[in-house]
Structures are given as structure tokens and as C-alpha cells.
Amino acid sequence: MSEGFSNVLVVDDEEPMRHMLELLLRRAGFEVVSVESGEQALAHLAEHSVDVVLSDVRMPGLGGLGLAERMSAEHPEVTLVMMSAFGTVDLALEAMQRGAYDYVSKPFKRDEVVLTLRKAEERLRLRRENAQLRARLAEFEGGVSVIGKLLIHSAPMRKLAATLRKVARFETTVLILGESGVGKELVCRALHELGPRSGGPFIALNCGAIPEGLLESELFGHAKGAFTDATRDKAGLFEAAEAGTLFLDEVGELPVSVQVKLLRALQEREVRRVGETDARPVDVRVVAATSRPLEEMVEASEFRRDLFYRLAVMPLSIPPLRERREDIAPLTADILEAINRRLGTTIEGLDAEALRILQTYDWPGNVRELENTLEHAAVLTEGALISPRSLPQRLHRERPGADAAPADDGKHFHLEFSIDDLSVKRAAHRIEHELISRALDQTGGNRTHAAKLLELSHRALLYKIKDYGVG
């Protein structure tokens, strides 16, 4: 079957010619329908999907010229190829001026018709690819794709957008830097969508969410019998991302033993499954991200220097939300629109005081915290506008002019509760949020140590950090 298109409509008033073309084109892999007039062709086009029309020039009623004009106006997406007998070549050329793509002269060799359709097929394929690329670019620039309208407001994000467009075209290894919740995965998706690998898979892995003993198998795969639970061969994420992009989030959480094997995979462009001796070639673009200070970790011998330089060929920094407060209002509008679609709410926006609170809050959890905050407010809001009363208490406590909190000796903390809010569930969430924030501060952001202090599993802590937008 043809890869570019499969539906051909033959238009000719001579039945033997229609029958011959049907047989010829079906053998070449096309799906063919034939009609005997231009009027029937237009009726068929109105009801069915057609990729190319192969039409005679001279026919009773609506001939090739008239058909070319009507198709240009009514079906510009359909490719028209004309057939012309000796003496009507000038008419075929005139039809091309009116929108036809090409013509073949009667009598023609069988291969000539197929070759002409193959050329039209390639043209159609290129047009479709171009349309897809334009659509992706329009989405990116217009702000409705993976990066959102975020990129077109503040100066720092406009600068990042311009850099992304340049970097995406090349196979350079990129390291995305930024605090938790700023949207590092979205930036990586933009690199993937805007680059030559957009047609391939996009595979993401949070390196801190997988237990150390399973990381190597997850990345590189394993052979059957390589360890107790290896009941079958399994491809790793490098192989799953073939011809696409592999996003390694929180790469600073990788244990040193896995760092060595990741470096080899990047240098040699091949992976070796656990339990196998032969390496497998891989064609993958790797993009890494971290919220940890990798350069400091290198100096402390917690992260391999050679791997750092391999990953950080092109570092991209995403500024925190507190440094681009002009993004808060447009981001809020976009997020509320998405929340309305997902939850079925009808929130139109925020009143002036609620918006002022959002714009003066420091957003330690960045965009993710803003999303969670707005969903919290949308659920509690009964009218069309979110008021300060629907916003979480932490935003009221931390805004300028709020009453000073009691002195913090590092052993106690104070939580305010509204007399109108007696929900045990929401109170428990606020306490968890505070405890997790304290544990991360105390451990310098080390999530493994923080999990031990909190008496949580590492995986449970990561889920809660994501839910609460902290870290």
C-alpha cells in the first residue's frame, strides 16, 4: 500500500480507459474509484476522502478545465493530475495554470502514470509534514503547546524561548537547571517537539523516584535470569527512546555506580543490558535536568565530573516564578482554563485582592505550587471569581504586611487555622506541607535524608513533594 496516499479518483468518460486505470493502479497499491464525468467527480469529493484525482481533459459536460477551477475553490487539499490526448496538451497546461499539479499524455506507458502519481504522493507527504511542523511551531509560539503562554510574557522566558528554538535543531546534550516546580519537563518536551526527533518517542524518568537497585535495569534493560525477578528479557528506557528523546529528571539523584554506566552510554552511544555481555547501539537524544547544585556535588565527589561535563554541554536555566512575577497573571488565566476543563468548574478569574496576593507571594514551589493553589481555590469557590477567602492560609501568612510569625527556634512551628475551616483533612495536609519543607531545609534539599527524618519511604516523599509543590 502506498505510504503517502491511497485514495485515487479516476475521471474519464471512456469506460475501457477507466477499467484499465483501475487495474493498473490497484496493482501499484492504490485504492481506486472511477467516475465518468466532472459532475460525478465533484459529487464524490463532497462525500468521500480523496487524495488525488486523475482526470481526462476533454469530457462532455464539466471538462478538465472546469473541474480544475472547481477543485481549486472547493477542494484545494486534493491533488489533480490531468490526462491529455495528442492535441490537447495546451489544454492540460492551461489546467495546470488553474490549479492542476501535473499531466500525462495519452497514449501513455503504464509506468508513466504510476511514476506521476508517486511524484504527487511525495509532494503530498512533504505538504503534510510541513503543515505539521507549522502547527507545532504555531503552538509553541502561540503558547498552547507544551511550553504554554509562559514563554511570551517575561523577558527571561522570552530569552529562554529564543534559545530553545536554536538548541532544538541540534543534537547537543542539554542540562536544564531550575528549582523544583519551574517546568523543567515542559522545557524538555519543547526541545523534543521543536527538533528533528519530534516524530520519535519522548520518554521521561525521575531518577530519584526509582530505588537504586532497579535504576540500572530501568535505564539499560535486563536479560532473563539476570536477577531473581527477571522472568523475561526487558528493554530499558534507552532502547524505548530509540530515535527520540530520553529525559532524565533529577539526574543529581543518580548513584555513582549508575553514573558510570550512563557516561559510557552517552560516550559510546550503546547500552548493555544487565546480565548480557554484548552492547546494543542506541540512537537517543538525552536531556537531563536537576534542581540540585551539580557543580557543588562535583566538588564534594557526589557527582562524577566527567559526567557533569558530558551532560552540561548546553545548560539552560529556568528562573523561579518569584523572579518573573509578570508571568503570574497570564499563567493563572491559562491554569484556570485547564482546571475548568478538567473539573467542570466555571471560574472566570480572581478578584483584585486575590490576584494581588498571588503576585506578592514568593512561590517556593513555583508553577507547580501555583497550579495546586488555584485548584484548591477553584474547588472552594462558589462564585465566578476567586476571592482571598478561597486561597490557602500560607499565602495570607507570607504576604507583605501580614502579622509576624512567632520566633522559630528550629524545634517548633506555628500553623494558623481559620475558625471557618474545621477540615481535619486540610489541616493534615498543611501540617505535612510544613514538615516536608522543614525536613528539606534541614537536609539541604537531600530527599533521601529528608525521607529518613520524616519516616517516609523515598518514593512516598517524592509523590508528596510533587503534590504540595515543595522542594
UniProtKB/TrEMBL annotation:
Domain Response regulatory as annotated: residue spans: 7-121
What are the residue boundaries of the Sigma-54 factor interaction domain, all occurrences included?
150-379
| Residues recorded with modification 4-aspartylphosphate | D56
Annotated InterPro entries? AAA+_ATPase, AAA_lid_NorR, CheY-like_superfamily, Homeodomain-like_sf, HTH_Fis, P-loop_NTPase, Sig_transdc_resp-reg_receiver, Sigma_54_int
Name of the protein in question: Two component, sigma54 specific, transcriptional regulator, Fis family protein
Q: Which UniProt keywords apply?
A: ATP-binding, Nucleotide-binding, Phosphoprotein, Transcription, Transcription regulation, Two-component regulatory system
A single Gene Ontology biological process assigned to it is: phosphorelay signal transduction system
Q: Which SUPFAM superfamilies match?
A: CheY-like (SSF52172), Homeodomain-like (SSF46689), P-loop containing nucleoside triphosphate hydrolases (SSF52540)
Q: Which GO terms describe its molecular function?
A: ATP binding; sequence-specific DNA binding
Asked if the Swiss-Prot or TrEMBL record annotates the protein with the keyword Phosphoprotein, the reply is yes
Domain of life of the native organism: Bacteria
PANTHER family documented for this protein: ALGINATE BIOSYNTHESIS TRANSCRIPTIONAL REGULATORY PROTEIN ALGB, TRANSCRIPTIONAL REGULATORY PROTEIN
Pfam families noted in UniProt = AAA_lid_14, HTH_8, Response_reg, Sigma54_activat
PROSITE patterns, sorted:
RESPONSE_REGULATORY (PS50110), SIGMA54_INTERACT_1 (PS00675), SIGMA54_INTERACT_3 (PS00688), SIGMA54_INTERACT_4 (PS50045)
